[in-house]
Amino acid sequence: MKLISILILVTQLIFIIPKTSAQFRYQLCGDPYSTPSSYQTNLNTTLNSMSSDTRINYGYYNFTTGKNPNKIEATVLCRSDISINDCRSCVHYSVTTLPVACNNTKQAFAFTDNCVTYYTDSKAFHVLTDEPNFALRFDGNTTTVPKLKFNSSLTTLMSSLKHKASLGNSEIKFATGKIDLTHNQPLYGLVQCSPDLSKDDCVDCVEYLISSVFYKYFIIAKPLFIAKGGRVVSPSCNVRYELYPFFKNVTYNAQPPAANRNTTSAQGITAHSRKSTKITEIVVPIVGSLVLIIIASVCILLRRKKQKTKFSASFNKEEMDTLQSLQFSTGVIKVATQNFADDNKLGKGGSGTVYKGKLPNGQEIAVKRFERDAVLGEEQFKNEILTLAKLHHRNLVRLLGFCLEGDEMLLVYEFVVNKSLDNFLFDPIHRKAMHWDTRFKIINGIARGLLYLHEDSRLTVIHRDLKAPNVLLDSDFIPKIADFGLAKLFKTDQTQALTSKAVGTRGYMAPEYLSQGQVSIKSDVFSFGVLVLEIVSGQKISSFQIGENLENLLAFAWKCWQEGKTWSVIDPMLCSTSSTEILRCIHIGLLCVQNNMGDRPTMSDVSLMLSSISMTLDAPFQPAFFTQSRAMLLSEPSQGSASDQSNGRSCSTNDISLTELYPR
């Protein structure tokens, strides 16, 4: 009987729903539910409500029914460039067809050309849901546009659109645009986020689809071909590009109800009279309340005068306006960290101590408490706030806020569950769990984070202190670059700068920066190259050892490369791994640490090298510090980290900042 009902419904759909853009391009069904009657009833109620909803709601529908464990949350997101009628047709088709295709399942995800549908028994609203996702590509070998230029143009276009879309409101987060590949061939793009997402979550969602799924299906899958068209879709966001103008010019516009537009003048007079009466009844008690509020406010302002003076002295007016929404009070942070209890201490660096905490809403945080007498402490505090407040990427640690009250300088970050990279990479026990797939994922993630800093963010940011302790790992070993206290911001057209002194960590610092104070994106590329060689070898640049002999990692890798013995550089724990990918990473690492910064690749070049195994790599030249003495390369720091080196420092779960400072 059940099968007959399904067949009847499907037959009805065949005749009712047109089979063009309304058909599913992809669908995915979840696990079956255990209590069919209650769950099915709630699902039917939710989907029927969505299908019958006729409100002008900008193409985003969300409904929920029931309570756990039978609660349903469902969303449908239409493309914002289609008409409302097309959107409603897509909603009707999707909510009617999907439960038939995914019969008796808790979750379902599907998309057509016009809308994306998702329902689940877990939370779906105001939550970044970038999985499940699906990619469609249209292949075609384009000889007139080099692949490197195509990928570069695509990256530039999508980077622009993701920021435009994220600036939308709670009704629409949508952007379209184009970029010229050649003088007569534009490339068109579209980015859309679910409007219930925050600005940051929108950017993160699009970043994930572009950096992970795009590379996987559009570059690695068929590296010899250019995907001339493609899209990636998830419940929270979707992206698309084509060589033709596929998007339309229709957008939703809010219109007031007809009854409001046709009110008579008599109705207007009556409404005015009622409004006057209401004002009279309300205004007197409000005035009295305002007097009390003003008095209380004056007292609070006087009490905080010293704190505000300190805040104003640290930031100018424009900076203050930007950072107002990020301020935490000392009281909130003290409660979250149990007054900076020792049990919550995660680690200690050169400029402060990091504590774990939990906000009243249950969110776990990491709090860095700066020491005011630390070298460059206040300068690093300000620099990190102004930098991270403007950056949002999956492979960068997220700054949630800060506190500057009295003598307290506090930074509040997202809590990253796993330890920093050096705790896994250089520990003889933990290193066993660092299989090559994990290490390669970390290398790729760090590369994508640096590419964002150098080319894709609104600012050009030079990190200046990229090293293993400043790379945090989440529960899935996704890397997040941290510690932006030494970061340097460049203007749009700026490519390099000179500093009066070089600060950072010796061994990771590029030769032109260490000797001349010359800073550029190639400074970070050098640090990245050192980090890649550390990840492959499983040893530190400061204590690389072969047998009982201490070596210079860069010099050793170069000698092995010249002698055709590159395998000698690789961590013995990776000996059972296929060598092709590992040897390619050593090659890329050597390209990044070349002595002449002009010979080093950019991070966009590096990302392409990592993703396209068919791409031929240039032969590297001699690395920096090859002829310099070990004493120069590995001289002990003058402050802060000497004890760390000697006692085998144990970094924290959220070792946000362990910057070691070296004067020129």
TrEMBL record:
UniProt GO molecular function: ATP binding; protein serine/threonine kinase activity
Compartments in which it is found: Membrane
Biased composition (Polar residues): 637-657
Superkingdom of the organism of origin: Eukaryota
Gnk2-homologous domain boundaries: 21-124, 130-246
Residue intervals of the Protein kinase domain: 340-625
Segments traversing the membrane: 282-302
GO cellular component: plasma membrane
Membrane topology, as annotated: Single-pass membrane protein
UniProt-listed PROSITE patterns: GNK2, PROTEIN_KINASE_ATP, PROTEIN_KINASE_DOM, PROTEIN_KINASE_ST
Position of the signal peptide: 1-22
Keywords, in A-Z order: ATP-binding, Glycoprotein, Kinase, Membrane, Nucleotide-binding, Phosphoprotein, Receptor, Repeat, Serine/threonine-protein kinase, Signal, Transferase, Transmembrane, Transmembrane helix
CDD domains named among the record's database cross-references: Gnk2-like, STKc_IRAK
Ranges for region Disordered: 637-664
InterPro entries linked: GNK2, GNK2_sf, Kinase-like_dom_sf, Prot_kinase_dom, Protein_kinase_ATP_BS, Ser/Thr_kinase_AS
Positions bound to ATP: K368
Protein name, entry field: Cysteine-rich receptor-like protein kinase 44
Native species: Spinacia oleracea (Spinach)
Native organism taxonomy: Eukaryota, Viridiplantae, Streptophyta, Embryophyta, Tracheophyta
Gene: LOC110776349
